[in-house]
């Protein structure tokens, strides 16, 4: 009898119960909007990759992405409850009466308190600290009129490093060499990374993401990041192969990838790959994007919100 009830209790009791009880309904990955570097690669010769701003088109793309994001998440009830969670709560209430009364009650009460605190949290945001990603997040906030109740930046989801100031001609030569070596394993010299290096830091990010789910529950987690980082995240999360990565391409600026949680359990499925296009603005032409030098104001971020508490 005791062994039977023990099998129904979560292993390690609190951690597994807490994680399963607060997994978001969706994980939404969004690539940053069009940047100065997307228009003119030579800007990387004088401006650090982390300080490259959005173009006007990129800002408009971000606002449009905010509108699309609101269409996905904005009309739902404030808290998403799945059938599996309700069944677990029911069984836990039975177990409170017949097995491990005190311990089980502590676990249940802690989980329900977190749910109650998160009742008004529909969307949590995490962004790369690079200027173009942060500006995209701010444009999304403005376009979707989100209150940004919880957000933070995480350096582990930054862009793949290609070195410091980048010589354009040399970088193009490296891209050609990469084709023969293998895209996933090719490491750019002089301080650069391979996607396999990005995989390692994204794996650490995913581990801590589960802790964020527990500490800051929300129905939707939105991650604003970069093309290679998005592909590596999907590779890691969906357990894809190296060949899957090598056969994939970066999404366009401000494109979405939506992972939706299955009704029961911890698995997610690829629900939607959303292409976001601005309503009116034409593509930026090279002549409209002059080169600039790095300066003390280069990391001033447009419409930056205050840090969440």
UniProtKB/TrEMBL annotation:
Entry GO MF terms: catalytic activity
Segments for region (Disordered): 286-309
Biased amino acid composition, Basic and acidic residues: 300-309
InterPro entries in alphabetical order: His_Pase_superF_clade-1, His_PPase_superfam, PG/BPGM_mutase_AS, PGM-Related
Domain of life: Eukaryota
PANTHER family attached to this UniProt entry: BROAD-RANGE ACID PHOSPHATASE DET1
Protein's name in the database: Phosphoglycerate mutase (2,3-diphosphoglycerate-dependent)
Biological classification of the source: Eukaryota, Sar, Alveolata, Dinophyceae, Suessiales
């Amino acid at each position: 009898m005791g062994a039977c009830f023990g099998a129904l209790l979560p292993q390690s009791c609190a951690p597994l119960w807490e994680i399963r009880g607060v997994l978001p309904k969706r994980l939404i990955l969004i690539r940053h909007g069009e940047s100065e570097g997307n228009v003119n690669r030579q800007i990387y010769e004088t401006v650090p990759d982390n300080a490259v701003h959005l173009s006007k088109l990129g800002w408009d793309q971000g606002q449009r992405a905010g509108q699309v994001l609101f269409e996905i998440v904005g009309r739902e009830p404030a808290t998403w409850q799945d059938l599996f969670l309700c069944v677990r709560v029911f069984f836990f209430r039975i177990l409170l009466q017949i097995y491990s009364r005190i311990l089980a009650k502590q676990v249940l009460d802690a989980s329900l308190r977190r749910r109650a605190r998160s009742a008004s949290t529909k969307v949590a945001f995490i962004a790369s600290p690079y200027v173009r990603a942060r500006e995209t997040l701010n444009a999304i906030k403005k376009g979707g009129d989100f209150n940004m109740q919880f957000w933070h930046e995480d350096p582990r989801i930054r862009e793949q490093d290609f070195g410091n100031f980048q010589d354009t001609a040399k970088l193009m030569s490296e891209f050609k060499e990469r084709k023969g070596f293998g895209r996933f394993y090719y490491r750019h010299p002089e301080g650069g990374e391979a996607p396999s290096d990005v995989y390692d830091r994204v794996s650490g990010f995913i581990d801590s993401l589960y802790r964020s789910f527990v500490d800051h529950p929300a129905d939707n987690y939105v991650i604003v990041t970069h093309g290679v980082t998005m592909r590596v995240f999907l590779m890691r999360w969906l357990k894809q192969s190296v060949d899957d990565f090598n056969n994939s391409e970066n999404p366009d600026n401000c494109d979405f990838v939506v992972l939706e949680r299955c009704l029961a359990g911890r698995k997610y499925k690829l629900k939607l790959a959303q292409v976001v296009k601005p309503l009116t603005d034409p593509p930026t032409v090279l002549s409209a994007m002059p080169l600039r030098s790095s300066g003390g104001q280069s990391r001033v971020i447009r419409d930056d919100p205050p840090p969440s508490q």
